[in-house]
Amino acid sequence: MKLMINTAHQRFGGAVQVALSFINECRAFPEHEYFVMLGPGLQKLVNVEEFPENFHFEKFDFGAINFRKSFAIHKAMKAMEIKYKPDVVISTTGPTYFHSKAPQIIGFNLPLYLYPESPYVQTYTGMRKLKFAFKKKLHYYFFKRDASAFVTQTDDVNQRVRKELGFDKVYTVTNTASTYYNQPETFANKLAPKAESLYRFVTISAFYQHKNLELIGDVAKVLEQRGRKNFEFVLTIKPEELERVFKGQAHITTVGPVPPKECPSLYRECDAMFLPTLAECFSASYPEAMIMDKPIITTDLGFARSICGDAALYFKAKDAEAAADQIERLLDDKELEATLIAQGHEELKKFDSPQERAKKYIELCASMAKAQA
Predict the structure, then answer these.
(1) 373 pLDDT band (50/70/90 cuts)?
(2) Residues 197, 314: one domain?
(3) Which of 200, 281, 307, 312 could bridge 270 with an S-S bond, Cβ 3.0-4.6 Å?
(4) What predicted TM-score, i.e. pTM, was given to this entire model?
């Protein structure tokens, strides 16, 4: 099978990590030929010299994507399809802005469209609400025009995509932590040595608005007001973002953006994972924390509970007092900490491994190619 893996439009985000994992795992299936379209998000992570001869790479950078760029993207990808003649095209996220002749499988990872009940979406008013509605309608047009099938990461998202797009060919292939977590490498510590009593909460995320990272500042203030001093929030945002948002606030630090293979090492330096996000289709932070034996404190929303189950403590969205309550529970109860870690090991069993995920993707591609033949 000749498989075109399209990441040309991907610049950042969790889908980049999914694509990276998939591309790497494809080496275990040498019977196929792979044509990989590398966008800027993947170019800095993929060493093309490490891949065998059945892999062919092309590099693209369309810059920030807008409607006018969609024509250039389609033209460039169409040229690649003519050049390589793939049996099927797959992208871990969309829209791809590319209407291929071959069947195309697209990952759906736009939670704000699927979860209108999200507290983040509920804040939209006026012109912002109108722009959001227009963008959603435009994206849905491209999804419906270009996709032969969709892939989602949870069954809940699967059902919502079916309802939103009126599409039957929607398949669930769960996300998980990358292979970097199977045998984590050791890197130099990014944090100063800590006192035994200090409890560190890590949040591995870029500064996206829906991640609601600003809440961390409010939570830190509440904990300080309650007399707590033995805690620290560790972020991976840029230093200038830390200064702009938190203005030198105590108990909050950043190590800056961290390469994926170094994230397990950062987890080792911390004690728990804190994620105040308001909308996700999936967050790999959840299984990552489970694998690294870190308890989870996160927002009490449907997507979080569908992924974490009993392996997390939950707090009302955007409620700093409620988040502080759960943090204090964890700080004061070692037995609770052990229970959450053990439950995390159980929850991990429901996720596909990176190898299983790649196998499912390839099997889906093969079935689509066969149906087209």
Answers:
(1) low
(2) yes
(3) 200
(4) 0.89
